[in-house]
Automatic annotation (TrEMBL):
A single BP term in Gene Ontology: methylation
InterPro entries for this protein: Malonyl-ACP_OMT, SAM-dependent_MTases_sf
Protein name in the entry: Biotin synthase
Keyword hit for Methyltransferase: yes
GO terms of molecular function: methyltransferase activity
Keywords of this entry: Methyltransferase, Transferase
Upper classification of the organism: Bacteria, Pseudomonadati, Pseudomonadota, Betaproteobacteria, Burkholderiales
Lineage: superkingdom: Bacteria
Regions that span the bilayer: none
């Protein structure tokens, strides 16, 4: 079974999660691009899970795409779920409160949710074990449901990685998983017909200070062999000079965005083996078999 090929520090990922509640600009832009891909899916889900909704930047897009669906935000744990719910509260006199409000669940509560769509925008690269998270997505979906996700790929921040390597600064960040390995993880988790794609987005800034400020909103260095402790102001000044050296008027950093979607088919019995089917999946299979043909 595929495993994560990279060293990863979950504590650094958790520190980024606690650092704020607003989705970064790049997350919202990737969500917009991923939402355009929903047009190729004919299914109209009745229950939609927005995985790690508070950082997804996707809520409004999903509400617009599926206005009749039950939309459920999924957060990493109960504390994050409660914080998301608190952030959604609006005064009673605002018209936005009169409509249907999304529900929220923790990841553990989402097991067996029976959703027809699991949407996970810019989440998977924050997992120490992406394969285990994909298996969790499979459990949260109903039979014939599908997942659509995006994450960072291995070509992300190649300029910064090369700079760190050239000057002996240590790893600039964790190595991200290749899209072909993610496709294998989907198959091993039980998904059918996985489709993987990628694109590169290059962001530019006028100064290295502006680049570093935005990079901090996008995450943390989650490589266990990163520099321990705080760097000195002298080191930071040298880093910014190195970032500006190729083009004093423009700092550019590339982001590889990986997209994927796959369907959860009906479980297949294996001769001489055992197949476990949830009650929700069994009900879905029975309803499908009773449809007129």
């Amino acid at each position: 079974m595929p495993v994560s090929p990279r060293p990863f520090d979950p504590a650094a990922a958790a520190a980024w999660w606690r650092s704020g509640t607003q989705p970064p600009w790049l997350h919202a832009e990737v969500a917009r691009r991923m939402a355009q891909r929903l047009e190729i899916i004919r299914a109209k889900p009745q229950r939609v899970l927005d995985w790690w909704s508070s950082r997804s930047g996707s809520l409004a897009l999903l509400q617009q795409a599926y206005p009749q669906a039950e939309l459920i935000a999924v957060e990493p744990d109960e504390a994050a779920r409660d914080a998301w719910l608190a952030a959604q509260r609006r005064p009673w006199w605002l018209p936005s409160r009169w409509g249907k409000s999304p529900r929220a669940l923790s990841e553990a509560e989402a097991d067996g949710a029976g959703a027809q769509l699991l949407w996970a925008n810019m989440v998977l690269h924050w997992m120490a074990d992406p394969a285990e998270m994909i298996r969790r997505w499979h459990r949260a979906l109903a039979v014939d449901g599908f997942t659509m996700f995006s994450c960072l790929g291995p070509d992300t921040a190649r300029e910064l990685r090369a700079l760190h390597a050239r000057h002996g600064h240590g790893p600039a960040g964790a190595e991200f998983v290749d899209m072909h390995d993610l496709g294998d993880m989907l198959v091993h988790a039980g998904f059918a017909d996985p489709v993987m794609d990628m694109e590169r987005i290059t962001l530019t800034w006028s100064t290295p200070e502006a680049a570093l400020a935005e990079l901090r909103t996008l995450g943390r260095n989650t490589h266990p062999q990163r520099h321990a402790g705080l760097r000195t102001p002298r080191w930071k000044r040298a880093l910014m000079a190195q970032m500006q050296a190729p083009d004093p008027a423009r700092v550019a950093i590339t982001f590889e965005i990986v997209y994927g979607h796959a369907f959860k088919g009906a479980p297949r019995a294996v001769a001489g083996g055992e197949t476990r089917v949830s009650l929700q999946d069994m009900r879905t299979m029975v309803r499908s078999s009773q449809r007129p043909r």
